[in-house]
């Protein structure tokens, strides 16, 4: 074969795509965009003399490998790759590699500390297999990957002379391998150049980062950057899969119109969606299986059935014959259907043997009507093209062929999980699919109506509907279709000229489908459209790294003995016996695509193999694997056993259940073995709505004790029903007991599951009745639920007892529902539906998983429960659901708790005193959500043994999350918080304090802190020029015109000036306000109509005034020249002075002080850390609550030293801000950046050190003047606390939850917080003795004593809502959706 030559028209990106396609790497390899960026000139060339030398050497080594192999290795490493002799070290001489799979050579490269290991080189005999192990010994490639992970050196080169395998492996990531065959280097010189380019010394031995911290072009760096670029791969594939489903649905709709509606007449909308999605899921599985060579590889399969081969054939035909021929053929579709049937049922033809995989995914009975839909070859080609060829929207990378071997199971799950918010809708009128971020599908008549209102209105409407910019929309509307585009539109309209004419003016707005045709839905079409938003229901795809972390720390204590539960160091952990590990029961109650279950399956299987290698592989396992198995075979066998008996999952979306099955099938797929049987373990239903205790079934009530007293009649049929559940349990245990190694066993499992489900069907009816009655009476007195259940009891008992056969086997047979049963089910469906679009599907844990729940519950629960804030819960799920959660999951504890709190409580309820590991929004440890969830768990005896309090979500969702692990840890288990060992972890996810209790508000701090004015109305705001013009017109207007300062202004403006002005009529009545006619007219014109739409009557009535003018605030500070203010929602938590002539926004906290000692105190590390410990957060920002922070902050007596250091701090700040023209945020970003060493920043850091030392001294003086403080502290602290003077502050750059900060050390912070809490309790006790906290005093006195001046008293939740309200660029102009004032 002559060598390939690069075509003159081939771009660099196409050249790189070509050699990547030839190489076909395994695992997540180098991303094409990264390669193009790093090698913009293409691959490096190999000099002719070097190529000739390699050709000659290769010919010689093949003739005498035993003699010439060492010199061949040397020639490749030294001559071809250019690795210097002094860079290579014998692996046997390196002490750190002792007792490991030592490489023959280690190649060293440069490092800041001299040099470091960069590449492990393994040289094996000529005939040794590199990817297969021997017995229990891992393969050479696996051994190399293990060493890479253990040492942190990510690269290895494994060779036997002919095959040179590049290995990349990092901790927690999949192994990547690329096999370079020396026998192909002369036929495919591009591969030789790729080998030399990647593994040449300059690239392979380079560090991942340059000295300045930027990524290098070294090979390790390319892999690291490619891992980050995998997000782009996933996003691109997700977009293309969505388009492929849309195209397939559109094709089915076209065929339905051609058939006069016969094709889809009896097919429900949801089933059309499910069918299209299942087809795409089947194709992904087949592409993955083909690349893994789990399906036949012979020519007959490729020619007649292969999916990838079919794509290649269709692509050739398109190139040779054009698109039109594909529109007239349907052979490809029927070839796929035949393959689907063969995969499900198998093929025994002597020339084509395919094992029967079974499983619901390929079941032809599921969508038989697809065989009547002659989908065209062109559509099939475009669908396959979307699955196989990545076309990134951004960047210069060429289209690249996707390797499914390089995709994680989790990535595939992510792609398809994005489709779960879509469905199909049958429509009678024409619709069009538009461009833009939101890509909406809209009825044509609506487009025409909006267009008729005029260009300006139409553009504004389109901007809102499409999520496109006005410029994009104007450009689209200006497009004039050419002849080809007009013809495509005509065809898309089913050749309806009138319809095409109506759409033609909007053609530029229509998005193209995968064929490039405009997206048009003629009458009687089926839309593939977004009907929900899983993000709106709080569902976010979990990245692999987070799922692995949750699973690891949940299961490690359960899988090892000794292990973390015994306090053993990790290198001493030992796996429990395999039989014990396979008894574990792990559940994810909101499993989505199954990411957590896949991680759990991997983790347990690894421990099982470790145990087998230590204790010996059981004989039955050896018999099944055969004598030639290796560790990979053993691990795969363990995964299949684990999947069959250890993992369980639930999801309220039926397609999520199918997707989770697909994920686990791919993870456990074995050649010539059927799919793992998972139907019994992965179930459809709502985890939160349903019974969790068998006693609830037998007593016909959510409260078994109450049920026993009012439903005694049910006891007469329990004796008959209980054996049915026992038999169902036995059947399910039998399902798990034997492996699914052939299709006959799978069929037997299906039969047993069907029998078990028929046995429990009547019990489900009773359980559904209990839940439906509870939902229909949610929020009402308990007696109403009792009465409703009593009213239904006779009907339920009649249905359960009707014609009940003697034996459970007879009962398990199919039966026709009675009229009474149908009526009862209709009633229940209405109650379960409530105000929702569809009824809730209750999930009854003791009926669905009796073999687990009868043994006490699951060993562990893991997951990422949906995120829905407490204020949005009612709107998203219904009043009845929220009330149900509060009373029947939350123990009646009210408050605006997020949904994750209820999932957390449900997780605890279904565990057998085991472990729970979850990811949740960081509100889990805050406010009402903490009280409902973590606090109640603590009260019930659960302990948090590990947590990450807050970290950014790594995906696209903009939120902060907490990672929480709960259980009943043993005495020697060490709690870990934010990676640091602590004495214990509180329900607020803080280190357990040596002082117990919550802080009190102190009377001494009353009346000093305020929240600024809540304006509510954009019309109050003026530009400075407008304000000045009004003052020039009438100087009296100065009485009501003021500079307006917001939170963002405070932190961003270098001169702390107000960028806007505001009209402020104080607390005046309307008559007085009208005496300023110029300003009043503006407010009447701009604000009154806005306020008139407000649901709050008081806001409508006082439309000319701020909703909270905070008159008391301005009275309090009227005699001050300046005032100390702080942005309430910010990571900064740093106050500063502003003049008192401003109106201060509700985004500002105001302290009625002007002395520099107060600046020092509130800028100190003590106040900073107290604020973070005492406040809630909004995303990554602190939501400062003056009542929770300032009023509880035990302050020291002011000192002259504090005044002096406050002066120095103010001066140091002003110097940098004025000279660099930067605001507070930018200033403190520099202060916290260890790379910034300027003298001015050094001065500011030193000023903060002096502030902290001066404040510490002030606390010490108080402590020394008042010995009772130390005596009180000694009584309340669980262990002795050092004196204030003895605290080592240890200022420096320390890791905190807010990132790296220049502050006191974590150890000092913990001591400071403990002492501040003790001092708060001491001060409160002293005040209480003085009668300052007497509850019998008048409300007015209490308000003053607790620091809530009349007129400005707001509780913590109100402050949080108002300070954190998300608005436009104006502060305080629009009401937060749930604010009361």
Question: Brief overview, please?
Answer:
This protein is an alpha+beta fold.
Write up what this structure looks like.
It contains 56 helices and 37 strands. The strands form ten sheets. A nine-stranded mixed β-sheet has the order 18-17-16-19-20-22-21-23-24, with helices on both faces. Strands 1-2-3-4-5-6 form a six-stranded mixed β-sheet, sandwiched between helices. It is of the alpha+beta class and 1381 residues long. Among the domains are: 43-217, tt1808, chain A (Alpha-Beta Complex); 229-424, no CATH class; 434-523, no CATH class; 690-810 and 820-842, no CATH class; 1047-1059 and 1106-1363, no CATH class. The longest helix has 40 residues, at 219-258. The chain starts with 11 loop residues before the first helix and ends in an 18-residue tail after the last helix. Helices cover 47% and strands 12% of the residues.
Give average pLDDT, whole number.
Answer: 88
Main β-sheet, in a few words? Answer: 9 strands, mixed
**Helical region count?**
56
Q: Could you give the order of strands across the largest sheet?
A: 18-17-16-19-20-22-21-23-24
Uncertain residue ranges: 1-8, 533-539, 807-813, 1336-1381
The rounded distance between the terminal residues' Cα atoms is: 81 Å
- Name the beta content range: 5-15%
| Shape designation | globular
Radius of gyration over C-alpha positions, nearest whole angstrom: 35 Å
The percent of residues in helical segments reads: 40-55%
Quickly give the structural class.
alpha+beta
User: How many strand elements?
Assistant: 37
Domain MmeI-like target recognition: 1017-1197
Domain Type II methyltransferase M.TaqI-like: 646-926
Catalytic activity: a 2'-deoxyadenosine in DNA + S-adenosyl-L-methionine = an N(6)-methyl-2'-deoxyadenosine in DNA + S-adenosyl-L-homocysteine + H(+)
Enzyme class: transferase
